[in-house]
């Protein structure tokens, strides 16, 4: 099969493009997908990459060969092995979408030896979307690209580099809430008098989610389409999750083929650009105020350490890192990837939506093992363009309400000391990660987590 490679051409923030060293396959021009009003500013505040060259070029097969192969996979019933059974909603549903499961119960599902055993995987309450949207999602076969914007945190951007037949073979769904919908209506991107029953903005079918029936935290509502995509789209064989801060620059069929199918992987995800160990990400989350409840972060890490979380080492290979950049996730829907997605969703509901903290714990403890392709971060920078989040929230009352409920909760000292001695369950983890004595690791852990509640708030990562 003929191979082609793409290289990134770095210009200014609005002209960063990808070029292929071969004849083009007549890609659809992004300007023809949707015409934005000048007030929307969908291309403002792009973040340019610091790399002028690429040491890990990503090779793609011929577009038409990829299209044919993925179409054949859709027609082959042997490739549809989604045999995870899910716990069903009982009666009128529960108080929580995910079931509010205890740690002991959640961990009991990690070893999935019995395919007949039902796994908790959300949907203990109805996902609050329209019936027409649900029907459309069930009709989506083969490949689906999914994103979400809650509380108007980002802007909707059209993908670039789509092949001429891609829109006939790939579904694009964008989940939004009422706040985001009002912003889109304000800019004239969505009509308030739509007779078709649904809205589209370019390639994206817009699905409104009634978030008052879900979680108070918008980020947690975004976790549902991010990790339960296999349940929302039960007939899709492959999925691409892309954070709304990213613009896709390469055809999703080529990405799925290159990063998942050709690698015989269940899932493909980028390595984190800076961190290797889960605890590094946890400390950064506390230090840089990425999650307001530092005490809960510490309890989460201690729960994982107590139940076998280990720092990354070469013995974990072929897993090359414990920390991903989860802004782009490509999946082949099947037993292993679906199980992983269910298990990590349960962790996020119990603790917080910072998925990088639960990633390695779930991956390392689940059975059967996930076939994971963790590619270099520069590949992520090649195939997407990142933009800053919206600078001003559209709903000032919601922003004020969130700020009132997100006062920093510092880690309690009794998590580290009991009767005058160290009781940190992560002491051995830290000693191994840093190559320190246990006492030195305990002291450094206490110091770094404490900074999450007392750092200079004017400093931002």
Automatic annotation (TrEMBL):
**Domain TOD1/MUCI70 glycosyltransferase-like as annotated: residue spans:** 93-389
- Record-linked InterPro entries: TOD1_MUCI70 (IPR006852), TOD1_MUCI70_glycTrfase_dom (IPR048354)
Q: Which Pfam families match?
A: TOD1_MUCI70
Which PANTHER family does this entry report, sorted A to Z? ALKALINE CERAMIDASE TOD1 (PTHR12956:SF13), ALKALINE CERAMIDASE-RELATED (PTHR12956)
Name of the protein this chain belongs to? TOD1/MUCI70 glycosyltransferase-like domain-containing protein
UniProt source species:
Vigna unguiculata
